[in-house]
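pasting NSR1-nuclear localization sequence binding protein for the record, 87 residues
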Amino acid sequence: MENTKLFVGGLSWNLTTEDLKKAFEEIGEVVEAVIIMDRDSGKSKGFGFVTMKTAEDAQKAIAEMNGKELDGKAITVNEARPMKPRM
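structre below
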């Protein structure tokens, strides 16, 4: 079974990668969790990615976490799509 990467948006600026990982570990096995940081300011861009070990865990995470409040903000969770090439 292959890993499934999820996009997580609407994150609180205070949320850490560890907080994000812990929240998703309640649902299933997390392979990797990362919050995207701004290169210049070093601050969170308010979104990140969580890679779940199985597609089943990923679907369960989408069902349970999408719209849920994390650190006071409702988050968006869906399957990550490949980045579009920049022109």
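The chain has a mean pLDDT of 94.
The beta strands are 4-9, 30-37, 44-52, 69-70, 73-74, 76-79.
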